[in-house]
Design goal:
Length: about 750
């Protein structure tokens, strides 16, 4: 009760098993005079609770016959033990409260009703931001018109002005004029999307027949109205049938595949009770419901997160500054960066997506090359690029109302991301990252790291020797990287000072706003950490980790990193404990923070179950299995828990698209396609590295066939063979796909070597 905001209405109805008694002397604020019998101990507890919480016992305020006050009857005894409580300030909204004689909700208890008059306030909807319909550029005819209109807007020139402000303004204005702007109201799913002229005319005739019957009240006019009602039903059924046939015919075509996945997502959203979390808790755990306070809390959380550094040692290091000439950016570099950019991503505050540059082709390459060279010479990006929009994304674990369980992703200018990709390509060519780093490195993936750890554990199990593993977690790693340490690490890696100044400029005077479910917050500065959502940040983080851990790293697989996910392995518990302490000091002395609650320890072939690993005197949590990079590794070397998690991941994916998979009007072929692109990848993840037993492979096979049978509406009682199920959906045997995935990964490793 104490955690509920005072502005919220609270009504409690329950069997309190106590008598509050008749009369209210001394307790006028919490109860009326119309209770029953004498007060007992339990009744006094109800009254005391009401006093503490400033509530009122509602059913004692209304004068009723005794029969309408009795809530409990048993064995010839009649009493009042059920009560409705509300806040004292809301008592004026209640007009009546009584027991319904003859109605029972449970054995011996009678139904009590309460009439409350509420003034329903109109909820002010958050108006969505109007957006230019850039997605129309997917059509070639729209691209042609846009290019011509832009050329005319630039005064008939084929080359864009190198001034960013001028060019960006013209592009935005041309886009709005040619492609149009969304209303900002959001997409509404209408129940009458099948409506047509025939239905409209038929309903109009039915309305006229209804008016005629209301005026004449004759049997003939009544029959005419009934006939028109029947015709409307038939016409609506026909319209729906035709509309559904057109819809599913389109979904069954190659052009309708995108619509099919969109329909699946829409039906998944429609099936959820809550689609947006509009309330959040403050730092003390109290729920905030007011829109302004909710936005204030989001701003407070992210402002604190992105502007406060962890404690670190102040040190002066001798770093050699590399002053050297850098060559101008070429068109081929811009083309490669443009090719790596994906379409269909959310735009930043400048409202110019990468689709614009792809649409303009060589004109865009020419402009971007000139613009990037201008930035490289001046070491200053356009002011518009310094702004971003921060969107909180729930991590799908923990309390949904806690800000700490959200990851802030920045929506940045797409053109700045192109600039970052050009810079990143040059930095990767200059800097060598250690082999222990698997995250965001070319020709490496999570599969390589998981396989190396599984093989190491398998070898030690084979030799019946102990292997001790500590999985280190860093708190808010990306958001707490000290900027001064970043510049220092870049210089220590031999990066040319020109590029250091270019990256420094990207982080200079950055500002952001938080876009949440109830609106957009005020702008605030970002002075600590790397940009979440930036194209350059993953490489910069790998570079920082590389330099910070130079003196404590061991060779792979004894030390492995995937960005901020670190695993340390040793043959003895004392050795892994010492390594953990060395890593803690190396990281925390430079401004990073090792999480005491999320760092975990696991042992293979453990001989002393009571043994523990300590970090600064505190015990590190000991586990029998750990979810490493999305794949479960067990201390006993088995894969049983990983198989169960793959099955669960498959069912989770299946539920998300069940709105389409369980639709009888969607063809089996399309269901199989959706299944192979959404469900099966979730079940296959990480199994290239797992040594599955036949029983475990059969378990995955059975789960997959259950999903396919559900999708087709077929049960085992129908006596339909599995090969027919797979044949109609074009879904191959799961075991074959696992072996195919292993061979594909093996071929990738062979080509890399």
């Amino acid at each position: 009760m104490q955690s509920i905001p005072r502005g919220e209405r609270v009504v409690i109805g329950a069997d309190f098993n106590g008598h509050v008694g008749e009369g209210n002397r001394g307790d006028e604020n919490v109860m009326g005079r119309f209770g029953l019998q004498d007060r007992n101990v339990e009744g006094q507890m109800v009254v005391d609770f009401a006093k503490r919480m400033e509530m009122a016992v509602v059913n004692t305020f209304f004068q009723k016959r005794q029969e309408h006050r009795v809530t409990y009857k048993s064995g010839g005894r009649s009493t009042q033990v059920d009560y409705i409580l509300c806040r004292r300030c809301n008592l004026k909204e209640i007009s009546d409260c009584k027991v319904l004689v003859g109605e029972s909700v449970a054995r011996q208890h009678r139904m009590m009703v309460c009439k409350i008059t509420l003034v329903v306030r109109k909820v002010k909807r958050t108006k969505a931001e109007q957006r230019t319909k850039w997605w129309k550029l997917r059509k070639e005819e729209c691209c042609v018109v846009f290019r011509e209109e832009l050329r005319q807007a630039m005064g008939g020139q084929e080359v864009l002005s190198v001034d960013w402000t001028t060019t960006a303004s013209v592009i935005r204005e041309t886009g709005r004029r040619v492609l149009g702007v969304s209303s900002g109201k959001g997409k509404v799913d209408k129940e009458t999307w099948w409506w047509n002229k025939e239905v409209q005319q038929c309903i109009q005739r039915k309305r006229l027949a209804k008016k005629k019957w209301d005026m004449e009240r004759t049997e003939g006019s009544r029959q005419e109205y009934r006939e028109m009602q029947r015709k409307v039903k038939v016409e609506v059924a026909k319209a729906k049938q035709r509309a559904y046939e057109d819809l599913y015919a389109r979904l069954d075509s190659k052009e309708g595949e995108v619509d099919l996945y969109r329909l699946a997502r829409q039906r998944d959203r429609d099936g959820k009770d809550v689609q947006q979390v509009r309330v959040i808790k403050d730092r003390d755990g109290n729920v905030l419901t007011d829109a302004r306070r909710v936005m204030g809390r989001w701003k407070e959380y992210f402002k604190e997160l992105m502007n406060e550094e962890n404690e670190r040692e102040q040190r002066v290091e001798e770093v050699t500054v590399v002053e050297q000439e850098v060559v101008n950016i070429s068109k081929s570099e811009v083309r490669r960066a443009l090719k790596r950019m994906k379409s269909g991503k959310a735009v930043g505050p400048d409202d110019i997506p990468v689709e614009v540059w792809k649409c303009l082709g060589e004109v865009a390459v020419e402009f971007l090359t000139s613009l990037f060279n201008k930035i490289l010479d001046s070491e200053t990006i356009p002011e518009e690029w310094r702004r971003s929009v921060l969107v909180p994304i729930f991590k799908n674990k923990g309390d949904v109302q806690s800000c700490g369980n959200y990851r802030g992703i920045k929506l940045m200018s797409h053109t700045m991301k192109l600039w970052e990709r050009v810079v990143e390509a040059r930095l990767r060519a200059e800097v060598s990252i250690c082999e222990q780093q698997y995250g965001f490195m070319p020709r490496k993936s999570t599969t390589d790291a998981v396989f190396a750890l599984r093989m190491l554990m398998e070898k030690y199990r084979e030799g019946n020797r102990e292997l001790h593993c500590v999985f280190v977690d860093l708190e808010k790693a990306y958001d707490r990287v000290p900027r001064e340490e970043l510049w220092c690490c870049m210089r220590k890696s031999g990066v040319a000072e020109k590029y250091v100044r270019v990256v420094q400029d990207m982080y200079e005077s950055c500002k952001t706003v938080v876009r949440c479910a109830v609106g957009v917050t005020e702008e605030f500065n970002v002075e600590v950490g790397l940009h979440q959502g930036s194209a350059l940040s993953p490489f910069l983080f790998a570079l920082v980790m590389d330099r910070m851990t130079d003196e404590v790293r061991q060779e792979s697989p004894w030390t492995m990193m995937f960005a901020d996910d670190i695993v340390l392995c040793s043959e003895s518990r004392k050795q892994v404990e010492d390594n953990l302490e060395r890593w803690r000091y190396a990281l925390e002395s430079r401004g990073m923070k090792v999480s005491r609650s999320k760092t975990e320890y696991m042992c293979v072939n453990e001989r002393d179950p009571s043994g523990m690993v300590r970090l600064q005197g505190a015990e590190v949590k000991k586990v029998q299995d750990f979810k490493y990079l999305g794949s479960t590794v067990q201390g006993n070397g088995e894969c049983g828990k990983e198989v169960k998690r793959r099955v669960q991941a498959g069912w989770n994916g299946w539920r998300k698209v069940s709105g389409v998979l369980c639709d009888k009007r969607v063809s089996a072929r399309m269901k199989g396609k959706v299944f192979k692109t959404v469900v099966r990848p979730a079940m296959l993840y990480g199994l290239e590295t797992a040594a599955l037993k036949k029983r475990q492979e059969a378990e995955l096979e059975v789960a997959e066939l259950k999903m396919l049978r559900f999708s087709l509406g077929v049960t085992r009682m129908d006596r339909i063979e599995n090969k027919f199920i797979r044949g109609t959906t074009h879904v191959r045997c799961f075991g074959d796909k696992v072996r195919e995935a292993r061979l594909r990964w093996f071929g990738h490793v062979q080509r890399r070597d």
